[in-house]
Each structure stands twice: as structure tokens, then as C-alpha cells.
Design brief:
single chain; 765 residues; six-stranded mixed sheet; 31 helices; 51% helix; globular
Length: 765
């Protein structure tokens, strides 16, 4: 009655009342409850088949474990028999669970009190290491002098009159290089309205031009202001620098201005220098390269329910924040440019990543139309399927359960059904997809749970979410294509993540059918690199057989199967080809015999034999692996065809790898080594499709196409086009994608077109 538990994870107190509500037992019954149920994580056996609900019922009826065991013969059915048989196990479990109450401990309660702090030193320490929130909190709690607010540089100016604006425009028009930033009302650029503009053309000097703010505060008229700034923003001879300029360019395009002259983006440059870093924000870059602590956005707009829009913040406060956002990129530019030059990344930045920004701006600005009626129909059907699956799952479990609760699923799978625990987490037995896939071979319930999760994810992530993302003015979804997320150089997408729509399932096809052309009568055209990663592998390894097969446009999976199995091509069965296909793609990711065996449902011995046969037949592939890993060990990084870098630690020396290979009889790669090989291949594919996007975009503009590039998904580009341009567009896209880089093997591009993304038919010349 005098004890409560503080649950740190949930931030709540757990007392006797909470225990009764959640476990339906009293505190004095906890030990007996756990003795009956057991705990596999702590190796407490319990009584087989006795789960929480049965234990609760028994203890509610008989009160204690001793009484439960004394009346076990009265318990009907299999449960009673298990109690009789499990008596000794239950008593042992009680001893394992119960604490020793007689340990000689004399608590020093005074020592447990919070105290012993040196307030001044604590505040200084927090301030030194950048924990400003902690420093301010410590200052308040200990009543020391608060951390003084940082003053903005004298060079930051608020431009809030037409005369000052004219003076600023004249100054900017004389510059060869300026830094640009916008303040807006929304994090999604197509939904944002401009609050103000900031510029910098000299380190430590910056200007903020407000066009929206709280009532009564001086701001400039939005339309006249942007018309005054247009000659600066659209002049390609005035170079533009900034942080995440793609966002600002989309916002400006929405206001009718197309910013030109972009020469450097500090976020993109940081990504090229360290593709594996988690954060390339201006706050992080300022601290890393300038040892400067920036004004944080939360300081202006707050958080949670009290969060304001930027145009609700006093203009003078926004001015300091916005001016800094223009000043810092200008100060970072020479530092980052020097490092790009030192690491041989300047050309990649200037010819690929910076030009790509303008291409992505067009894609995100135009967006893609989705059919809300199609999605509404899917939502109903998926909802009905989920309800049906829920009933089937409860029938198999024997009682209702919360399918979204890993704890309840674990109870049913491992305690009630007695299925084996394959993996453990910090909170107990794992019920992740990998575990459920393996358990599905032993019982029907795990397979149903997997299916339920798949439908629930598709419904929540796409079917129900996509209509919410349709812009009210454009009627389109405007996904963000991110340059600085994946370590391999590939683009990712968000809001929504279109790259996770399943490709080979019927449900994925149904969702893709909702993506349609945005103009009446127009069509979608999709162009996809065929087996691009295998072709890049053949290019790097220079294996004659592989290169010749691609040159003759042979079925590479049939070829590999015939050579590894030692049969003629026309004797290759569908199973042989499936095995060869799994190995062909698994090789790129350094798949082990264990992984291949699991994916194909064969023994590890069979998988090992197949992998060994592959490397014996295609020795160039193994030599490419050794060459790549040797270079990575010596340099600390790997590079792609265009010199894109990724730092990778943990690759073993060639001698250690050779020794491990000799011992195992094959090349056993660890995770860093698999990552190194995969990065070279995937990164080169990323280079290729980015170059293709830039080239195609340029030709669409030069040749005055109405057609637009609207999506990039993995190795696929999607366009919307009027019907009369389809043939010309298909030829243009196919030619550019095929010739953008010269490899030792020909590139193949499959082109499809149709009314929606799912129902495209092959384009034939």
C-alpha cells in the first residue's frame, strides 16, 4: 500500500489500483501469477499452456498458488491436467520469481536524496557542450543567473520600407554570388506561403525582408516585393547559395518566380562529404564547421499545442533568425567547397547534384494526380478484408486479442500455442515479420498475422493517407524527393514514400492504378532500367561470359542456371532459374548461404553449393569483390563510377579476408564488407539515373515538350504526356537512359504507357 513503481518508458506511476486494472490481480498475487505463467526471457518455466487469462481466473477463484495446486483436479479439461502435471514446475517457478526478503541490507535513505550539485559549474558545463535547454533549466531550478540571450550580429538588418528594399535590390544586383532563404508558413513547400526573404552577400551581413507578420507590425506588400526581387532571383548570372534550396525554389515557383543561377547547396555538399551522416541541418553544419550555435526554430514558434506559425512571430525576432539562415550558408560555402575539391567531389557536385535540384523542383512542384474514388473503393475493400482476417485470427487464437499488440501476440504464439521463440528483444520474444514467416511453416496463425499487417500497412500508409495529401488547389500529391538521405546516393521519397509501394503484389498494383495522368486525355509513360545492377556488376567484374550474355540480350538467369547446374539452357527448369535469379541479385548484397537458404526454402548446404558454383564459374565477380574490399581497407571508403564516396569502417585486411575465405571454403563477408560492395553497385546505378534525369529534363525543355517528368522510383522514371507526344517521348527517354553512361555492357530500358501507373502496356516502336 505504500509502494508504487515509476514506469520510465510510459512516464506513469504504477500502483496497486493500476495492477488490478491491467493484470486483474492483487500485489500479493504477482509472484503466484508469474509462477503459473512463466517468463521465457528469464528462463522461468511456469506451467505449460497456462497463459495470463487462465492464471487470472485461477487466482480469482482460489486466491493463491498453493490453493490452485490443491484444487487442480477440480479444474476442467486440459488445463487441470496440465496443472497436475506441472506442480513441480510451478513450485520451482515460484522460487525463481520470489525475491529473497532476508538479504542483510540497511538502506541509507539520506544518500538517495537529489543534491550535491555545483549550480554554477553545471550551467557552465551544459553551456560549453551546447545543451542550452539543460543550461536554462538548471539555471531556473538552482536560481542561478539565467543564460543571457544571444545578441544578433550588428550586420543583420530588417528591411521594412520600400526605400530600404530598393537599396537592397540595387546592392544585390551588383553581386556575383548571394545567399538566399525564405521564411514560410508550412514545412511542405507546395502548402506554404512566403512570410519573408533573407539575403546575404558578405559574411556577417544579412538582410530580412518581411511580407507577412502579426497584425499591426510593419511589413512590405507581398506582390510588389516579389516583383522587386524577381530580377535578382531570376538572373542566372547572380550565383545563388543556400541550405536546402530545393524548398525555397518550390515556394518561389508557387509565387510565380523561377529562381535561376543556383551554384551551391550547403546541405547537398555536406551529404556528398559524409553520405552516412544522419543530419545535414544548418544547425549541425554551423556547429561543425564554424563552431557557431544557431538560433533554433523552437525558440521562435514553440512546440506542440502552443506552436505558432512564422507569420505570428514578432517580425524583429524572425529577422534575426532569417538573416542568420542566409548568413551561415554563405560562410559555409568556401569551407565546404574546399573539402569537395580535396576529396575529388567537385565535379560530381557541379555536374550531377546541383543541376538535379532544378529537376526535382519541377517534379515536386507539378506532383502526380491520384484518383480519390479509386482509393475510396480500395479503402472499403481493404477494411472488409482486415475485418475478415481479424475474425480468422481470433478463431485460430481461440479468443479475442489486439493484433497490434506484440505483447498479446507473443502470449498467444509462445505461451498458449507453444511455438518456439526464435528471436528476443529487450521487451520479450520477437513477433517481427521474419519470425512470423518462419513460424508460418508450423501454424496457420502467424501467416494470417503477416497478411493482416500487410493489408493494415497498405491501408494506413497509402489507401487512406494519399487522399489526405492531395493539394486542394492542384488536385495532386506533391511527394518530396530527397537527395541527402540514402548513403548509396539513391533518391528517397517522403510525404508519401512512394518507393515502398509493393511492386510484385496484386495489392501494390491496385494502389498504383490510382496514379493517373493529370490532364484530360493524357497518358502515363514509365521507363525502367532492366537489371541495371547486374549490368553494372558485369561492367565492374569484366567477366566475359556475363558481358557477352548481356550483349546478346540473353536471359541472364537462365544462363547462370545452365552453367552452375551444368545443363543446356533449354533444360533449365523454373526452379533452377528461380534459384539462379535469387543468387544473381543476392550476390549484389553479399548474401550468405543462410540467407539464400531461407529465401528459397532450401538447405544451407544446397545454398552454399550454389553460391560456390557461381563464384567458381564467374571468377571475375570474386575478383571484383576482392579489389573493392582491398581498396576500401586501404582508403577507408568506396567510390562509384562518378567518384561518389562512402566512408565504411570494419572492412578486414586482404590477408584476414583471404584467411577467412580459406577456412570457410568461401568468401564470408561481414556487414561492412557487404555494404561496401553493394554501395559501389547501387551508387553507380544512382549516378546513372540522376544523369539521365538531368539529360531528359534538358531535352524536354529544349524541344518544347508538353510532357513532364513526375516521379522517380528506384530505377524507374514516370512521365505524363499528351497522346500525340508519346512516341517522341518514349524514343527520347529510352535513348537518353541508354546512352547517359558508357558501360562494358549495353543498357536496356523497358518503356510502358497507359492510362494509369499499373495498367501500362509495352511501348513498341
Amino acid at each position: 500500500d505504500h509502494v508504487a513503481i515509476y514506469n520510465i518508458r510510459k512516464n506513469q506511476m504504477f500502483d496497486a489500483a493500476a495492477l488490478r486494472e491491467e493484470w486483474s490481480i492483487r500485489p500479493d498475487q504477482v509472484v503466484d501469477f508469474q509462477a503459473l505463467v512463466g517468463d521465457q526471457v528469464d528462463n522461468v518455466p511456469g506451467v505449460p499452456t497456462i497463459g495470463p487469462k487462465t492464471a487470472q481466473t485461477l487466482l480469482a477463484t482460489y486466491g493463491t498458488l498453493d490453493e490452485v495446486l490443491a484444487h487442480s483436479s477440480e479444474v476442467p479439461g486440459a488445463k487441470g491436467k496440465k496443472l497436475v502435471e506441472g506442480r513441480e514446475s510451478a513450485l520451482l517457478s515460484r522460487e525463481l520469481v520470489r525475491l529473497d526478503r532476508h538479504v542483510p541490507i540497511e538502506p541509507d535513505w539520506a544518500a538517495a536524496r537529489i543534491g550535491g550539485m555545483d549550480p554554477q559549474r553545471l550551467v557552465a558545463l551544459f553551456s560549453e557542450f551546447g545543451f542550452r535547454t539543460f543550461a536554462e533549466r538548471a539555471a531556473r531550478l538552482t536560481r542561478t543567473t539565467p543564460v543571457p540571450p544571444r545578441r544578433s550580429p550588428a550586420g543583420y538588418q530588417l528591411v521594412d520600407t520600400t526605400a530600404m528594399l530598393a537599396e537592397l535590390v540595387a546592392k544585390l544586383s551588383e553581386q556575383e554570388l548571394i545567399s538566399v532563404d525564405t521564411e514560410t508558413t508550412h514545412v511542405q513547400p507546395r502548402w506554404a506561403e512566403i512570410v519573408g526573404y533573407s539575403f546575404s552577400c558578405r559574411p556577417g551581413e544579412a538582410f530580412y525582408v518581411p511580407v507577412r507578420g502579426p497584425a499591426g507590425q510593419a511589413v512590405l506588400e507581398p506582390r510588389r516585393t516579389i516583383e522587386s526581387l524577381r530580377p535578382i532571383l531570376e538572373n542566372p548570372r547572380i550565383g545563388k547559395v543556400g541550405q536546402n534550396l530545393k524548398y525555397d525554389m518550390i515556394v518561389l515557383r508557387g509565387a510565380g518566380v523561377q529562381m535561376r543561377g543556383v551554384v551551391f547547396d550547403t546541405m547537398v555538399a555536406s551529404y556528398l562529404l559524409d553520405a552516412g551522416a544522419r543530419n545535414h541541418s544548418l544547425d549541425v553544419l554551423a556547429k561543425r564547421y564554424l563552431n557557431h550555435t544557431t538560433i533554433k526554430i523552437d525558440e521562435l514558434i514553440g512546440r506542440g499545442k502552443l506552436q505558432k506559425r512564422m507569420d505570428e512571430v514578432p517580425v524583429v525576432d524572425v529577422a534575426n533568425y532569417a538573416a542568420e539562415d542566409a548568413d551561415i550558408p554563405l560562410r559555409l560555402k568556401p569551407l565546404l567547397a574546399e573539402r569537395l575539391e580535396e576529396t575529388g567531389l567537385t565535379r560530381l557536385n557541379e555536374t550531377v547534384e546541383v543541376p538535379l535540384i532544378a529537376v526535382l523542383v519541377k517534379m515536386e512542384f507539378h506532383g502526380v494526380r491520384v484518383d480519390p474514388a479509386c482509393l475510396a473503393d480500395l479503402s472499403v475493400r481493404y477494411g472488409e478484408r482486415l475485418s475478415q482476417l481479424e475474425r480468422e485470427i481470433e478463431d485460430l487464437a481461440g479468443h479475442p486479442l489486439n493484433i497490434a499488440s506484440p505483447k498479446q501476440l507473443a502470449e498467444v504464439l509462445f505461451h498458449e500455442l507453444g511455438l518456439p521463440v526464435l528471436k528476443k528483444t529487450k521487451t520479450g520474444p520477437s513477433t517481427d515479420a521474419e519470425v512470423l514467416d518462419q513460424l508460418a511453416e508450423k501454424h496457420a496463425l502467424p501467416a494470417k498475422i503477416v497478411e493482416y499487417r500487410q493489408f493494415a500497412k497498405l491501408k494506413n500508409t497509402y489507401v487512406d493517407a494519399l487522399p489526405m495529401l492531395i493539394h486542394p488547389q492542384t488536385g495532386r500529391v506533391h511527394a518530396s524527393f530527397n537527395q541527402v538521405v540514402t548513403a548509396t546516393g539513391r533518391l528517397s521519397s517522403s510525404e508519401p514514400n512512394l518507393q515502398n509501394i509493393p511492386i510484385r503484389t496484386e495489392e501494390g498494383r491496385e494502389i498504383r492504378a490510382a496514379f493517373v495522368a493529370g490532364e484530360p486525355g493524357w497518358k502515363l509513360l514509365a521507363a525502367d532500367y532492366s537489371q541495371i545492377e547486374l549490368r553494372i556488376l558485369a561492367h565492374f567484374c569484366e567477366d566475359e561470359v556475363l558481358c557477352e550474355a548481356f550483349a546478346r540480350d540473353e536471359d541472364i538467369h537462365t544462363l547462370v542456371a545452365s552453367q552452375v547446374f551444368g545443363v543446356a539452357s533449354d533444360e533449365v527448369s523454373s526452379v533452377m532459374r528461380r534459384h539462379a535469379k535469387a543468387v544473381n541479385f543476392g550476390i549484389i548484397y553479399g548474401q550468405s548461404p543462410f540467407g539464400l537458404a531461407k529465401s528459397l526454402g532450401i538447405s544451407q548446404e544446397e545454398a552454399a553449393t550454389f553460391i560456390d558454383g557461381y563464384f567458381a564459374r564467374y571468377r571475375g565477380v570474386g575478383e571484383f569483390f576482392d579489389r573493392t574490399l582491398g581498396d576500401c581497407y586501404r582508403q577507408g571508403y568506396v567510390t562509384t563510377t562518378l567518384g561518389r564516396r562512402r566512408v565504411i569502417e570494419g572492412v578486414r585486411s586482404p590477408s584476414l579476408l583471404a584467411a577467412a575465405t580459406e577456412k570457410a571454403g568461401r568468401r564470408p563477408l561481414n556487414l561492412p564488407e557487404r555494404t561496401a560492395v553493394n554501395t559501389v553497385i547501387q551508387g553507380s546505378a544512382a549516378d546513372m539515373i540522376k544523369l539521365a534525369m538531368i539529360a531528359i529534363d534538358r531535352r524536354l525543355h529544349e524541344e518544347a515538350f508538353q510532357a513532364r517528368m513526375i516521379l522517380q522510383i528506384h530505377d524507374e522514371l514516370v512521365f505524363e504526356s499528351p497522346p500525340n507526344e508519346i512516341d517522341r517521348l518514349a524514343q527520347l527517354v529510352q535513348n537518353e537512359m541508354r546512352t547517359v553512361l558508357t558501360l562494358r555492357v549495353p543498357l536496356k530500358v523497358d518503356v510502358m504507357w497507359g492510362d494509369n501507373w499499373a495498367e501500362c502496356e509495352p511501348w513498341i516502336v
